[in-house]
């Protein structure tokens, strides 16, 4: 009887495991250090389709100096939404050279689209108000390895 209950428990965890993982934040993505003037940003990098589709979903908090950098293969008219995202965020749509193309404040748990005003490969999500509090706006530049012209 014990082996049957162990088998059933293993079977349930095998079936439910992926579903449970989809309701949890992804916390262990690779990280990159970015600069915004004199400010440093510790950004997790979402570069695969799965990583980008989960993004910052299910997070209940995020330190002020942290964010998530979404990296795409080629520039396109990217749009983001906030379904299953609990934190108010600001998305910076960023050109290859690190120039902020546009900023969008995004309300948690909505399906409103927030789109780049021109094709970009990068989107940096930070806690809402982070850019405004530091005087960053359209035309401001971010620094770091992703925006280095030698890459």
What this model shows, in words?
This protein has 151 residues and is an alpha+beta fold. 21% of the residues lie in helices and 33% in strands. It is built from three helices and eight strands, in the order αββαββββββα. It has helices at residues 2-22, 49-54, 130-133; strands at residues 31-36, 39-46, 66-76, 79-80, 89-94, 100-106, 114-115, 120-127. The chain has a six-stranded mixed sheet. The model is unreliable at 1-21 (pLDDT under 50).
Topology (SSEs and partners):
Elements: H1 2-22, E1 31-36, E2 39-46, H2 49-54, E3 66-76, E4 79-80, E5 89-94, E6 100-106, E7 114-115, E8 120-127, H3 130-133
Parallel strand pairs: 2-3
Antiparallel strand pairs: 1-2, 3-8, 4-7, 5-6, 5-8
Give the key terms.
3 helices, alpha+beta, single chain, disordered N terminus, 151 residues, 21% helix, 6-stranded mixed beta sheet, two-stranded antiparallel sheet
Helix % is: 10-25%
Largest sheet, if any?
Answer: 6 strands, mixed
- How is the largest sheet built, in terms of strand order? 1-2-3-8-5-6
State the end-to-end distance: 60 Å
So what's the oligomer here? single chain
Mean pLDDT: 88
Taking all Cα atoms into account, the compactness measure Rg is 18 Å
Low-confidence stretches: 1-21
Strand content: 25-35%
Q: Structural class given helices, strands, pairing?
A: alpha+beta
Number of strands: 8
Discrete helix count:
3
- The string of secondary-structure elements, in order, is HEEHEEEEEEH
The backbone outline, from C-alpha atoms, is globular
